[in-house]
Structures are given as structure tokens and as C-alpha cells.
Amino acid sequence: MALVVVILAFVVFCALAVRQAPLWQWAVAALVLGLLTRVDAESGFRFTADGFLLLALFPGLVLALLCVPAVRIAVVTRPVYGAIKKMLPRVSRTEQEALDAGTVGWDAELFSGRPQWNKLLGIRKLTLTEEEQAFLEGPTNQVCAMIDDWDTRHNRADLSPEVWQFLKDNRFFGMLIAKEHGGLGFSAQAQSLVVSKIASRSAAAGITVMVPNSLGPGELLEKYGTPEQKEKFLSRLARGLEVPCFALTGSHAGSDAAGMRDVGVVTHGMFEGKQTLGVRLSWEKRYITLAPVATLVGLAFNLRDPENLLGRGTAIGITLALIPADFPGVEIGRRHFPARQAFMNGPTKGRNVFIPIDYLIGGTERVGQGWRMLMECLSTGRAISLPAIGSMSIKQSLRVTSAYARIRRQFGISVGVMEGVAEPLARMVKSAYAFEAARALTASMVDEGQKPSVLSALLKYRTTEAMRDRINDALDIHGGRGIQDGPSNYLFGAYQGVPVAITVEGANILTRTLITFAQGALRAHPFLYREIAAAQMRDQQAGLAAFDKAFGGHTSFMVRNIVSSFLHGLSFGRFASSPVSGEMAHWYRQLHRYSQAFALVADWTVAFLGGDLKRKQLLSGRMADILSDLYIMSATLKRFEDDGRIREDKPVVDAIMADCIAAIETNFFAVFSNFPNRLLAGAMHMLCFPLGRHARPSHDAQNYRFARAVMQPGAFRDRLTLGAYVSHDPWDATGMLEDALGKVVAAEEIEGRFIRAVKKGTIERRLDRDGVADAIEAGVLTAEDAVTLRAADEATERAIRVDDFEFDELAAKQFQRTPRIETAAE
Ligand SMILES: Cc1cc2nc3c(=O)[nH]c(=O)nc-3n(C[C@H](O)[C@H](O)[C@H](O)COP(=O)(O)OP(=O)(O)OC[C@H]3O[C@@H](n4cnc5c(N)ncnc54)[C@H](O)[C@@H]3O)c2cc1C
């Protein structure tokens, strides 16, 4: 009987823990089990009410007592509340505003360890309206065809006047502005696809279109502007009659932008000949995209009101203003030259510039809310722009590299069929699929009204890091052809632009090691945020009551994590949940299993490190990588479903899943071996991986097949490079590759015949295929075959050619060195 009770107790414990049962159910179960221990099977199941009965019922009685809120609060919650208040991470005002600015969605599901699949699969598929589709195929393709990347980045260091005008005339700068305000009113998905298609042609052009459609005056006015400001500016911005920039960063305030020194003081001053209420502003900003050509300057500064003229106290906080660039006192500096990119970027400053109060974005209603406004725009903007440019750079690199690897021959074969080259090419295939999946999923979330601050942060750093790695892969595969810069180099502009994507909208190191996990845990953890909020409440009683609720939930969450992680670890996730049946169910179960392990480790990490979490960046960086791999897995599985389970893509999905899981395990084990508390580290290891590590990355043979498949023109290659601008002009920098690939593939069988005849000695080996004539004579080739073969040769010749220049041609383009750099003191 004792053994039966022990087994029953274990089963009941697991069942209650996994269901996160309420406390009263635990109490009832404990009482029933206590009673059962007093039943003697050998004496005919007789119940014995001896002195041990009280002992057997003790756990159940304690739990029952804890069900009474007053008792629980007095005995457990109050002491824990006091102790935990000191341990929980402290949240500054700006952090609080950043946290409040975003929403949580799928990230919270991953943090919960028990994802509800409908919240992933229910997110709408990539959908565009007819108008958006027509814009992509019409004006977007047209402007792509107009852009000459070499001319842009080398000759002009600017877009051509025709391209600027076309962009303005066709309202490319007003995609996010609503139709009622004269803009295109496009969805996040459409904006992302338009920006990225342009970026596939020229990084500088992509960034130029991205900025007015990202965090900046247009978005700020749309969301927070007064009716007069909307009326005055939005239509002009949409039509390109005003060019905006937004200035947040200063020399002393980069990543810590909220620590800016730029100040505004509320006061009276003269404006248009009248005494007016306004702000006297001083600022010094740098790195501002579009500033050198801007007509409207958005500005963030710290507002003070020493005379309390606005009635909001003296220290108001970060506030935003919109000032015409030709306003007296506004200085737009000379151009910076970021990573030798041609887009406009430069400093701006002003000293004691008096602006009227209605230049403040949102008027006096919005003073002091600047940080929150910026963070709200950032949580959606960051989900659209840089992931679009990053994923497109990967796709575009794959498009050109897959063609080049096929047409470039060494040792008598295409370089892409050599295993060493196929390896990076296969990496490009997997990244192209996975990052497009993540881009599309996140843009759809924005279109559904979410502001995914954590997911957009992790997507930004992961996509731009993958962009950096895949462009390096592309250059390695191209060898000298990718290095020799000139009009026919289609990789170098993107290569040079990588550091820009890595640094802007939150530099990647900061975004990975601070924002994603440290802030993500606060926001997306099911109970932590509520506990912190309760701990920070001024009213002690209300704080205690709120904490009691959150802490109760947190305790049952912890118990469930322990049991579920261990059971999933023991069974390798075989009994985890899946929304689908069949061959993909395995991957959903794995995703559930690893998100369960993540929930446990994240919870314990936050609980143990508390306020130290922001300093322990090596741990939080690895946790960010695990979370982002879980997200990439989710997006990949969703894309496969949304695309209608295309069989040809299944092996790619399998490989992405296997690689992500291998990376996740590596990061978990790095967390365990570096965790400051060895006991907890051992416990986490034992609970999540009771049988040790077992993940294997994707198989070599599988990866090799991807490389072979993508070197073939067709649906697989087109799907992987979806959205990239494809030129078919044989004299265009990228068009010549498409042309050559098609012709080389068409001539493949003929060439095989020709080479075999040369090897056999039927025809003589000669330079430059002069032997083709002999082959016709020998009956190896027909005249028609010879035409096909020559066309392939000519196209290949054109595509592998690199540029050369007159001796002083390049020197003539160099800029004169300007020795003087102005400092703030000047
Ligand atoms: C080409 C370009 C265009 C830009 N356009 C604009 C624009 O239009 N408007 C605008 O306002 N700004 C713009 N910026 C500024 C951009 O947002 C900043 O460069 C960025 O925020 C980083 O600031 P910083 O360069 O001063 O680096 P720093 O803040 O000096 O950071 C240096 C390094 O330290 C790391 N770091 C800093 N703090 C932490 C931390 N707490 N934890 C971990 N790591 C940390 C960073 O990740 C980075 O790697 C632009 C910048 C560039 C280069």
C-alpha cells in the first residue's frame, strides 16, 4: 500500500504541477493522500485513526490554512515581499517608459514555456492589398531600374536628381502617412517590402527611403501631432515637399540617448514680432540621417520650466519639437561619410534658439512624454525597417552568389559544386528562408496592432548579424570578383553598409546583451512585471495584495517549470504539444520542449541575479540568443504552414530547426557552466537535460543538396530570394548574372558532350573553345548547339569580368581632406 501511495503521490504531484492547479486542489490532494496512508491493505483496507493520522494530514492541513488569504499573507507573502523588494531589478523612469511602450505577444508565450499555438498560427499570413502589390511591381521596380549603385556611391555620393524626384513624386516618403493626410497609408508588410526591394538595388537608396518611413517626424506627427500640425505638415511630407530628419543622438548621448545634454527652457520671447510663449533651445546632435538635405528637423531635448509657466512643475523631461531647417539659429552641419555610404547624414546644432510653443510635437499636452513617444515608434519601426534591409541583403546575396557559384568554373567544374563552397552557400539558403520568415511574421504582428518591443529588438540584432555573416559568405564565394570594386560589383555597397545596420536603432551589442533578455524578461515573463509593479506601489496594503496574487501565480509557475522541464527532458519532448500532426509535429514538440527549458532557466536567472541582471551581460546575451533562436524556429514553422507546406522546402525547414536546437543547447550549457551559483546551475542542468546533450546540427549531405538546388534557376531559388529586384538586362550589374545562369544551364548538356569529345581526343583542345568549329565538323555538335554554347560563354565572360580604371581616374574622385573639426566649445 505504501508503494501505491508513493506512486500515486508522484503522479498527482506531476499532474497538479503541470496543470498549475490552484492551492486548494493541492490541499485536497494532500489530505486525501494523507488519509490513504492510514489505510491498511493487508487487513482488508481498514482505516486506522492512530497517532500518525495527524502527521499524515499535516501537509494537507498546512496547505488548507494557506488557502485563507489573511493567513497566507501574514505567514508567507509579507516576509517574502520584504525580502524580494530588495532583490527585484530596479526600473528607472526611462526604462519604465520603454517597457510600457511595447506590447507582448508570442514572446510572452515563449517565456511561459507552454506556447499556445493558435497565437502563432493565427497571425495573418503575408498579405498585400492590390494597390500595395501594384506599387511594388510598378513604381518600386521602376525606381530600382533607375538606380545605378556605382554612380550613387562613387561618382555622386548621392542619389541622382532623377531618383530623388521620382521618390518624392511617387510618395515613397509617405508610405506610413494615412491616405486622409495625403500619404499612401501602406501596411507595415508593404512598407517593409518596398524598402527592402529598393535596398536590394542600393543600400543608400534603401536607407534614404527607410528613414522618413521609420522613427521620425512623419510617424510622430501621425501618432501624436495636434490637428494643426497634421494639417500643416503631413501632406507636404507625403509628397516630398518637406524632407524630414530626426535628431536624438548627440556627441555625449549615443546608446544612452536619454542622458542627452540638449536643453530647452520654457520662457517668453519674440516670434514674428510678438511676445510669445515658447522654448529657448540649445542642442548639438550628430549622425543624423537626411539632416544635410532636411527641411524639417525633429529634435529631442530635455525640457525645464523654471517659472512653471506650463503648470507641470520645473523638470518636465524629454520633449520633442519640429523645427524648419531654415529657422533662424538652426545650423545644419556638413556631411558625415558613414561607411562610405552615399545617403545623407550629418550634424545639427543650435544655441539659444527661441521657438514658439506650438513647434512642440503634440503641443503642451505631450511635453515630457518624448521618451515614451520615441519608444512606441521604435517598437514598431524597428520591426519593419532594419529586419527588412537585413533579410533582403541575405536574399540578394544569395540570388547573385547562387548564380555566380554556378557559372564560375575552376578545375573544370562550377565552384558551387565543391563541398567547401557549398557549405557557405547552404548557410545562405537557410538564412534566406528563416530571416524572411521572421521578417514577415513580425511585420504581420505590427499590422495586427501589436508593438512588439522585445521581438523587434531581437529581430533587429539577429537579422543584421546574419546579414553581416552571409555577405561575408557571399564575398568568400566570389573571391576576387567580389573584391574588385567598380560599376559591375553588386556586393561591395552592401558589404560596406553592414556596420550602419549593426549600429543604428540600438547598437547590436546593447540590443543583445541588455534590451532583449534583461528588458524582455521584465516585459514578457508571466509574473515578474506584476511583482515589480506591486513592490514599487506606494500603498503598502494594495502592494501586498497585488504581490500576493502575482507571487502565488509565480510559485505555481516555478513548480510547473520544474516538473515539465524534467519530464520533457527525460522524454526528449516526445509528449510535448503540437498543433499539427504528421512529420512537422516533431519540430513543434521540440519548440515546446526548449521553450519550457527556457522558461525555467530564465525564471531562475532573473530570480537569482535580480538587479544584477543588467551587469551580467554575458549570461543575458546567451539567454537573448536562446530566445531569438526560439523565435526563428517559430517563424520558420509558421512560414512553412503559410506557404502551404511546399515539399521542396521541407528539408530546409528541417535543417533550420536542427541548427537552431543545436545552438540553443550550446547556449544553455554555456549559461550553466558560467552561472554564478553552482548549485542552481547543477539543478537547472539536471532538470532541463537529465540525459545530457543530444542535439545534432543539420547533416552535411542535406546542406550540400541545398547548395546544388539553389544553383538551378526555378521556383526554389525564386522563393528563397522573394522580393529582391531581379533585372533581366544582360548589361545590368545583376542582370548579367541572371542572363549567364540561364544560358549556362541551357548549354550544360551540350558542353558536357563537347568536353567529353575533347577528353576522348575526337577534337583537339584549343584556347577559348575554338574547337567548337572542329566539333561541328566532327558531328559532335550541331550548328544550333554551337550557338547555344557560344551564347553561354559570352554571357559568362561578361558576368565574371571585373572593372579597371585609368591610373588617375580613381584619385580624381578622392575628397580633399578638411583639417578642421568643430567642437562643442566653438
Ligand atoms: C549611419 C548612422 C545613421 C544614424 N542616424 C541617426 C538618426 O537619423 N538620428 C539619430 O538620432 N541617431 C542616428 N544615429 C545614431 C545611432 O542611433 C547611434 O550611433 C547608436 O545609438 C549608438 O550610439 P554611439 O554610436 O554613440 O555608440 P555608443 O553609445 O558609444 O556605444 C559604443 C558601444 O558600446 C555598446 N554599449 C553602449 N551601452 C551599452 C550597454 N549598456 N550595454 C552593453 N553595450 C553597450 C554599444 O552597443 C556599442 O557597441 C545614426 C548612426 C549612424 C552610424
Show the helix and strand layout:
Elements: H1 2-19, H2 23-37, E1 39-40, E2 46-47, H3 52-66, H4 69-87, H5 93-101, H6 106-112, H7 118-121, H8 130-146, H9 149-156, H10 161-169, H11 188-199, H12 203-210, H13 217-224, H14 227-238, E3 244-247, E4 263-271, E5 274-289, E6 296-304, E7 315-324, E8 331-332, E9 345-356, H15 370-407, E10 409-410, E11 413-414, H16 419-447, H17 453-478, H18 480-483, H19 492-503, H20 508-524, H21 528-535, H22 540-570, H23 585-609, H24 617-642, H25 650-674, H26 678-688, H27 700-710, H28 715-720, H29 735-746, H30 748-760, H31 771-777, H32 783-800
Parallel strand pairs: 3-6, 4-6
Antiparallel strand pairs: 1-2, 4-5, 5-9, 6-7, 8-9, 10-11
Helix pairs in contact: 1-2, 1-22, 2-3, 4-22, 5-15, 6-20, 8-11, 11-12, 11-15, 15-16, 15-17, 15-29, 16-17, 16-24, 16-25, 16-27, 17-19, 17-20, 17-24, 20-24, 21-22, 22-23, 23-24, 23-25, 23-26, 24-25, 25-26, 29-32
The chain binds flavin-adenine dinucleotide.
Residues 245-249, 254-255, 287-289, 338, 345, 500, 503-504, 507, 509-510, 513-514, 617 line the site of flavin-adenine dinucleotide (FAD).
Kindly state the mean pLDDT as a whole number?
A: 92
**How large, in whole angstroms, is the Cα Rg?**
32 Å
Parts with pLDDT < 50 across at least 5 consecutive residues: none
What's the main sheet like? 7 strands, mixed
Structural class: alpha+beta
Shape: flat
Helical percentage: 55-70%
- What portion of residues belong to β-strands? 5-15%
Instruction: List all distinct small molecules, including ions and cofactors, that are bound in this structure.
Output: flavin-adenine dinucleotide
Rounded to the nearest angstrom, the distance between the terminal CA atoms is 89 Å
Number of distinct helices: 32
Task: Please count the beta strands (DSSP E, at least 2 residues each).
Answer: 11
